[in-house]
Amino acid sequence: MLEGKALVEDTDMPLKMQIQAMSSASQALDLYDVFDCKSIAGYIKKEFDSKYGNGWQCVVGSNFGCFFTHSKGTFIYFTLERLKFLIFKGASSSTST
């Protein structure tokens, strides 16, 4: 496991889920090269899909922008080592015509 501490920048996740997010990120960094952001994100997504049901999204990198809609209580954005982690479960938006 990595010695570095995660810094949560924003979240609406329950604490237990936040801990799982940071733990999954740390495990992924132990398994993959720090520059292999796609594999790191895939690992975390699969962990969350397995534990909390399908529909999770994960973005990993050092410089990215995003705009998304998420289900309440499923969002976290944190830094671990040199990388930023964005994990959320997508929400469908209903439109009326």
UniProtKB/TrEMBL annotation:
<dbReference type="GO" id="GO:0005874">
    <property type="term" value="C:microtubule"/>
</dbReference>
<keyword id="KW-0963">Cytoplasm</keyword>
<dbReference type="GO" id="GO:0045505">
    <property type="term" value="F:dynein intermediate chain binding"/>
</dbReference>
<dbReference type="GO" id="GO:0007017">
    <property type="term" value="P:microtubule-based process"/>
</dbReference>
<dbReference type="Pfam" id="PF01221">
    <property type="entry name" value="Dynein_light"/>
</dbReference>
<protein>
    <recommendedName>
        <fullName>Dynein light chain</fullName>
    </recommendedName>
</protein>
<keyword id="KW-0493">Microtubule</keyword>
<dbReference type="GO" id="GO:0005868">
    <property type="term" value="C:cytoplasmic dynein complex"/>
</dbReference>
<keyword id="KW-0243">Dynein</keyword>
<keyword id="KW-0206">Cytoskeleton</keyword>
<dbReference type="InterPro" id="IPR037177">
    <property type="entry name" value="DLC_sf"/>
</dbReference>
<comment type="similarity">
    <text>Belongs to the dynein light chain family.</text>
</comment>
<dbReference type="InterPro" id="IPR001372">
    <property type="entry name" value="Dynein_light_chain_typ-1/2"/>
</dbReference>
<keyword id="KW-0505">Motor protein</keyword>
